[in-house]
Amino acid sequence: MTDSPTGGITFGLASGVITAMGLMVGLYSGTHLKLVVVGGIICMAIADAFSDSFGMHVSEEAKHHPIHKHIWASTVRTFVSEFLTELTFLVPVLIFKLSTAVLVGVGWGLSLLAVLSYRIARSQGRNPFIVIGEHLLMALLVVAATRFAGGRISHIVK
């Protein structure tokens, strides 16, 4: 556990981006319904942020840290960063036609991950292109898998 003010923020941001992109793409592929995507994003922002912040809390407690307030600070930072990050994916859905909104959302998510990855790489003295490439590749795998899953589910359930 770190006393750093970023403790929990980077986790919440990265997790929020990956989950939001996957959910948007999967729900769009499966339903093509704006209401479903909006509802999914809101429910996901609540449930996922609580789930991950609880997981962060339990994980940090398991490390037997002597300063309990640092555990709670990391828990709150994880919740807030993930919740707010996921809610940003509502903006394109509310502004654009759904097919465009999904593309904008994926672009937004990849941009956030690229900036986060760059900052992480620079802080660790690593090659930013390698770190950004790794992270964007993982994100694109999630997008591809959820697009495929949404499409398959749509065909099975109909």
Q: How many individual helices?
A: 6
Average pLDDT works out at 93
Helicity range: over 70%
Unreliable stretches, pLDDT < 50, 5 or more residues?
none
Distance between the termini: 47 Å
| Main pleated sheet | none
Gross morphology is globular
**Which secondary-structure class do the elements indicate?**
mainly alpha
Helix-strand sequence: HHHHHH
- Rg, nearest Å: 17 Å
Number of strands: 0
Please give the domain count.
1
User: Proportion of β residues?
Assistant: under 5%
Describe the protein's architecture and organization.
This protein is mainly α. It is 85% helix and 0% strand. It has one domain. The chain is globular. The protein starts with 8 loop residues before the first helix and ends with a helix.
Jot down its keywords:
globular; 158 residues; 0% strand; mainly alpha
Quick take:
This protein has 158 residues and is mainly alpha-helical. It has one domain (9-157).
Describe the secondary structure blueprint for this structure.
Elements: H1 9-31, H2 34-62, H3 68-87, H4 90-95, H5 98-124, H6 128-157
Helix pairs in contact: 1-2, 1-3, 1-5, 1-6, 2-3, 5-6
